[in-house]
Amino acid sequence: MGKKSYLAMKKGPASTELIASDFQDIGIAAKKLANHAVKLALSLSIGSILLQIIASIAAIYLLVLDRTNWRTNILTALLIPYIFLSLPSLVFDLLRGEIGKWIAFIAVVLRLFFPRHFPDWLEMPGSLILLIVVAPSLFADTVRDSWIGVVICLAIGAYLLQEHIRASGGFRNSFTKRSGIFNSVGIIILLVYPVWVLVVDIL
Q1: Longest dimension (CA), the chain
Q2: Model pTM?
C-alpha cells in the first residue's frame, strides 16, 4: 500500500510538468499563428492600398484621355464618383481641407467671372474637387470606407467596360485596335481594385 502511494506521488510532479509543457507548446503555437495572421493582414492591406492607388491613377488617366483623344459616347463622367470613392485617404483628406477649398474657390470664380479663361478640360477636375470639398460626411466618411463604395466602384468599372467594348465594335476590337488597348487595360484596372477588396473582405 505504501509502495503504491509512493509511486502515485512520484508520478504526480512528472504529469504536472508534462501538462505545463503542453500548455507552453500551445502558447508558442498560438503566438506563431497570431504573427502569421498579422503578417497576412498587413500584406493584404498593403495590397489593397497599392491597388487603390493604381485604380485612382488609372481613372485619372482615362479622364485625361477622354479630354484629349478618346472621344466616345461613353459616360466618362462616372469616373468622377469612382475617383471620389477610390482616392487614397491621404490625398482625399488633403483635398478636403483648406487646399481643396482654395482650389474649388478659384475654379468657381474663374468659371463665373472669367469663363473664357476656364478651359473645357478643367470642368471634370473642378467638379471632382467641388465634390470632395462639399460632400457630406455620410459620403466622405461612411460610404467611402464601406463595402457600399466598393460595390459602386465595381458597378462603374463594369459599366464602362461593357460600354467601351460596345463602342469598339466587340471584345476583340477593344483589345486589338491600337487606340483601344490602353483604354481597355485602364478600365480593367478599375475592376481589379473593387474585386480584390470584396474578396479580401469575404476571406
Answers
A1: 110
A2: 0.72
C-alpha to C-alpha distance for 127 and 171, rounded to whole angstroms: 32
Read off the DSSP letter of residue 203: -
Handedness of CA 28, 33, 37, 43 (dihedral sign): positive
**Of 87, 78, 90, 131, whose CA–CA distance to 108 is shortest?**
131
The answer to whether 178 touches 29, Cβ cutoff 8 Å, is: no
| Euclidean distance between CA atoms 193 and 44, whole angstroms | 12
Pull the grid cell for residue 104.
474649388
pLDDT in tens, 10-49: 445 555 666 666 556 676 666 665 554 544 554 456 777 8
Calculate Rg over the CA atoms of the chain: 28
For residues 25 and 80, what is the distance between their CA atoms, to the nearest angstrom?
Answer: 54
> Which cell is 88 given?
487614397
Q: At what angle do helices 79-86 and 147-168 cross, to 10 degrees?
A: 150
* Long-range Cβ contact pairs of 154-157 (< 8 A, separation 24 or more): 154/191, 154/194, 154/195, 154/198, 156/78, 156/79, 156/81, 156/82, 156/190, 157/82, 157/187, 157/190, 157/191, 157/194
